[in-house]
């Protein structure tokens, strides 16, 4: 496994160097990603489309086709459409959900396609030639360590999960492992599907059920927005910290400004899809081949370093 902060610029350089090595036959790379149903996936769509435009303009022997899907079932159908009547040299996929996409991606793999999986790993990791993701265990662990420090190792927490995927499981694993030897108590933990509205409603339920909550962890920033709105409307003063994850620009701005309730953040850049596309092409043309697992670092974003992670023109 590689640990890296390598995002698109380095990968672009690899592809530019490889331009003379492209074969005469056009190579087809399908990119299958969820539709922009929340902020992070909006960033993924933005960066995937940008990469496709750059590659298709610069390299006439490569065709990158991007397809977005609003559900797991739609993504299964999209894979069938993408592979119908033509051979895919590579598939770059961010699965809508791990379990439902594993068998369909295996079918594409069995046809001789190079498989790059991004972010949400498949249930069967052997299908993946290349897996690129942020370090989700570190996202959960680093958040928990901060809470332990600031709360003195004790207090009542509520947690909001995303959707049932490998990355959600890993974030929760990292968090739970970090707090298990402390007196921090998780009062409740439920799914809010990485959705701000659902998180708002779930946080309202938490507030109604529990008279003393010291901190909240929503393991995604879209959910954190809903949490913060619910806390604001409630007028509750017991909640000292509400933390998220992913590096949404609105949350990073709060960190920059020294927000008392959300003073830190962990990055999980949607631009990783762009890196995955360039790395996949590099594998196909024999330049700097990378297989296996590439993990991007998840350092804590604080007021001191937040400017490095703040991109006001980004969709996320």
End-to-end span in angstroms? 28 Å
The CATH topology of the largest domain corresponds to Rossmann fold
The CATH superfamily of the largest domain bears the name Response regulator
Strand-pairing-aware structural class: alpha/beta
**Percent in strands:** 15-25%
CATH level-1 class of the largest domain: Alpha Beta
Q: What's the helical proportion of residues?
A: 40-55%
Topology, number of strands: 11
CATH architecture of the largest domain: 3-Layer(aba) Sandwich
Choose one word for the global shape.
elongated
Largest β sheet strand count, sense and barrel closure: 7 strands, parallel
Oligomer: single chain
- Sheet with most strands: strand arrangement: 1-11-6-5-4-2-3
What is the H/E order? EHEHEHEHEEHEHEHEHEHHE
Indicate the radius of gyration in whole angstroms.
20 Å
Contiguous helical run count: 10
Low-confidence stretches: 5-12, 14-24
- Count of the separate structural domains: 2
Can you give the mean pLDDT? 90
Could you explain the architecture of this structure?
With 316 residues, the chain is α/β, with parallel strands linked by helices. The protein has 2 domains: 2-134 and 269-303, Response regulator (Rossmann fold, 3-Layer(aba) Sandwich); 136-246, Response regulator (Rossmann fold). Helices cover 42% and strands 20% of the residues. The protein is built from 10 helices and 11 strands. The strands form 2 sheets. A 7-stranded parallel β-sheet has the order 1-11-6-5-4-2-3, sandwiched between helices. Strand 4 (90-93), helix 4 (98-110) and strand 5 (114-118) form a beta-alpha-beta unit. Helix 1 (8-17) runs parallel beside helix 10 (272-284), helix 2 runs parallel beside helix 10 (272-284) and helix 3 runs parallel beside helix 4 (98-110). The longest helix is centred in the N-terminal third of the chain and has 20 residues, at 39-58. The protein is elongated.
């Amino acid at each position: 496994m590689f640990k890296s902060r390598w995002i698109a610029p380095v990968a672009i350089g690899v592809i530019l160097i490889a331009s003379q090595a492209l074969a005469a036959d056009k190579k087809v790379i399908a990119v299958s990603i969820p539709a922009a149903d929340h902020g992070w996936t909006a960033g993924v769509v933005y960066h995937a489309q940008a990469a496709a435009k750059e590659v298709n303009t610069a390299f006439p022997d490569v065709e990158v086709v991007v397809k977005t899907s609003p559900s797991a079932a739609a993504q299964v159908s999209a894979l069938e459409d993408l592979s119908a009547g033509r051979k895919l040299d590579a598939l770059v996929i961010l699965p809508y959900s791990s379990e439902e996409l594993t068998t369909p991606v295996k079918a594409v793999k069995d046809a001789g396609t190079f498989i790059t999986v991004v972010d949400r790993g498949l249930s069967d990791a052997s299908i993946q030639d290349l897996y690129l993701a942020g370090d989700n265990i570190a996202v959960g662990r680093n958040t928990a360590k901060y809470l332990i420090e600031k709360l003195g190792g004790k207090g009542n927490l509520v947690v909001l999960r995303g959707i049932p995927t490998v990355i959600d499981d890993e974030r929760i694993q990292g968090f739970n492992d970090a707090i298990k030897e402390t007196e921090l108590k998780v009062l409740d933990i439920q799914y809010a599907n990485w959705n701000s509205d659902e998180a708002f409603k779930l946080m309202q339920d938490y507030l109604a059920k529990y008279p003393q909550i010291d901190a909240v962890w929503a393991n995604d920033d879209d959910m954190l927005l809903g949490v913060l709105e619910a806390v604001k409307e409630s007028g509750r003063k017991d909640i000292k910290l509400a933390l998220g994850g992913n590096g949404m620009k609105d949350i990073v701005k709060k960190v920059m400004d020294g927000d008392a309730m959300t003073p830190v953040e962990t990055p999980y850049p949607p631009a990783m899809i762009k890196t995955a596309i360039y790395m996949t092409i590099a594998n196909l043309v024999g330049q700097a081949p990378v297989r296996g697992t590439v993990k991007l670092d998840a350092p804590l974003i604080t007021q001191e370093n937040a400017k490095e992670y703040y991109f006001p023109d980004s969709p996320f």
